[in-house]
Amino acid sequence: MIKFSDLNLNPKVLKAVEEAGYEIPTPIQAGAIPPALDGRDVLGIAQTGTGKTAGFVLPMITLLARGRARARMPRSLVLCPTRELAAQVAENFDTYTKHLKLTKALLIGGVSFKEQDTLIDKGVDVLIATPGRLLDHFERGKLILSDVKVMVVDEADRMLDMGFIPDIERIFGLTPFTRQTLFFSATMAPEIERITNTFLSNPARIEVARQASASETIEQGVVMFKASRKDREATEKRKVLRMMIDAEGDKCTNAIIFCNRKTDVDTVSKSLKQHGYDAAPIHGDLDQSQRTRTLDGFRAGDLRFLVASDVAARGLDVPSVSHVFNFDVPSHAEDYVHRIGRTGRAGRDGKAMMICVPRDEKNFEDIERLIQREIPRLENPLGHIGAEAQGDAVQDGAPEDTTEKKPASGRSRSRSRNRKTDDAPQAKPEVKSEAKSEAKAETTPEAASAPAEKPAEQPAEAQQPRAARTEHAPRQQAEARAQTAPQETADNSRNDQRNDTRSDASDTKRGGSSSRSRGGRDDRGGGSRVTGLGDHTPTFIEKSFAERYDG
Ligand code: AMP
What we know:
Blueprint: H1 11-19, H2 27-37, E1 42-45, H3 52-64, E2 76-79, H4 83-96, E3 104-107, H5 113-122, E4 126-129, H6 131-139, E5 150-153, H7 156-161, H8 165-174, E6 180-185, H9 190-199, E7 204-207, H10 211-214, E8 218-224, H11 233-248, E9 255-258, H12 262-274, E10 279-282, H13 288-300, E11 305-308, H14 310-313, E12 323-326, H15 333-340, E13 350-356, H16 361-371, E14 377-378, H17 387-395, H18 402-405, H19 410-423, H20 445-449, H21 466-472, H22 475-484, H23 494-519, H24 539-550
Parallel strand pairs: 1-6, 1-7, 2-4, 2-5, 3-4, 5-6, 8-13, 8-14, 9-11, 9-12, 10-11, 12-13
Helix pairs in contact: 2-3, 3-4, 6-23, 15-16, 22-23
The structure holds adenosine monophosphate (AMP).
């Protein structure tokens, strides 16, 4: 068996690795470190959780231990798709360089340019950045990339998903042709293959087992759930979630709860809090300091439940998460693998449970096909639902709940729903009359929840097919899109805002697509147009046809 000491790492790096408590290198480390130390390009096909970060940081810092940084000319570059991931790489860097004198700068949104400029001016050995922020610095003339000796691209498949490939290509072009490239991706989509063929030179290719097949320590389960009434689905689903959590008792020390849409992240988090659970949301609309605070709290064990969107939780490394709850079935099967991989890390046990409603069954089948195993069905903890769940709806002050409070007429339901969406979570019963609400009285429950989404979550790109959007969107188009989105953080980091806005928009699109395509009514933010009545025919029309036919 290969040991770290066999890998030719700098002795000071080796010491830091030992102090981190690692005994043997993981397969991606054993495969990637030797060729990287030989100066070869590396193509690592591995997911988060496999130890890939140390797989590139350890050889990189060993190579950098010789030589010194020059002002404004970083010697190495690590590109990450999200701020959180970049921050995590920076933490890894600090851990492994503790006995070396290497410097770093983290270029992400939510941090002032000035602070980052000062560091760059002094000269850094390693620059860890999201692509947009890096290009912003470059365009401001503050950064020279011609001394980059090692360039790392982390989670390239996520970069592709988020529309960063044109930025990555541009950054490759700004670095010297002679640089060494360490490139990591969980999957090899054709576009990723193209990039690696273009920019990597005879790479050592290391592929480790997909996490789906490696995650034997994760116990999985699904509740196939059908609400007592369609318009109660959201409320009852939240109740199912609480009961699932309760059933786990003390075994559930902490959990990440995934939702497909940002609005649901907020709703579920508020609802849990109202029911006395220690929960906080994390998604791309929250400002960076809040995201960092929430994550730090979760990592430190001060926060028990992190309610998250895929993007916000992407690549996050919190070593001991006992449970993952998929409040929604992810629309893309590979996201399931990423989500459940947040638990059962580094050989620990973990449990991943999901709620699947009838309209998500197709996506659920895709997941089972991908992981090539049947996910055990769990008993519906609500059993017989009805009055009990309805009573719960009144306590649960989240937006959708108002639909159950006034079953009397479509008109009043619609009114209170509109109001609630704006005022959540402390919405009061509606007393004012609003003429506009009449038009919405016929709205389907799915469409009814849609107004809670902000327009920024459905930018124009949501109309494009996913592949076209992610693979060909040039930077200019992306910037134009970003300008239509609200500013998400206090600083002027437009590119990193674009980063999260874009990615969460894609989340939203994915997550929301099933509901919109069914109801087909929400075209405010670029959803598909509906001709005629879509699949929702008002009862009075059905009745008049039936009467004629019968007659
Ligand atoms: P990553 O895939 O880089 O996000 O790493 C996943 C987790 O594995 C992190 O918590 C690392 O600290 C941990 N880790 C990395 N390398 C090793 C190793 N050789 N032995 C044990 N744990 C490791």
